[in-house]
Design brief:
By secondary structure, the chain is mainly alpha-helical. The chain has 7 helices and no strands. The chain is globular, with a radius of gyration of 18 Å.
């Protein structure tokens, strides 16, 4: 529970620093983790479960930013972006697009994929190799560009 402990320590630090954006974001994140803990009872929460909750919330923020930007709501885009920056600190380092393209190219060679029909197979293999260090949307875009 290293990540969960780090979040609690950062909540305390944000209280002391009177950083309301960070405090509210981390409290929301902690509440989501606590809910996952309750939902998974009697099984204990694993580090992977905590990371899954974090990734889900980051993905929600990114989607919200896109939707608010399309609606012209810059005030909400700014708020969501601030929350996203706080949450991204806890994610593992993300792969660059070039690194993702290399992994996709390797997987396409290994699987012998030749058309867009093979996208599911390639996507599954790439996600297994990147182990959460690459954005699913970016992976999808790269696979589509390589298979077309």
């Amino acid at each position: 529970m290293e990540l969960k402990d780090q979040i609690m320590a950062d909540i305390k630090a944000a209280m002391i620093a009177k950083d309301s954006v960070k405090l509210n974001t981390l409290r929301f994140l902690h509440a989501a983790i606590k809910q996952k803990e309750i939902d998974s009872r009697p099984n204990p929460l694993t580090a992977d479960d905590v990371m899954a909750v974090l990734k889900k919330l980051v993905k929600q923020r990114k989607e919200s930013i896109d939707q608010f930007a399309n609606a012209g709501r810059t005030d909400l885009v700014d708020a969501e972006t601030a929350e996203l920056k706080v949450m991204e600190v806890y994610l593992p380092a993300q792969m660059s697009r070039e690194q993702i393209e290399q992994v996709v190219a390797d997987v396409i060679k290994e699987t012998g994929a030749s058309s867009i029909k093979d996208m599911g197979t390639v996507m599954k293999a790439v996600q297994a190799k990147t182990a959460g260090t690459a954005d699913g949307k970016t992976i999808s875009e790269v696979i589509k560009s390589k298979l077309n």
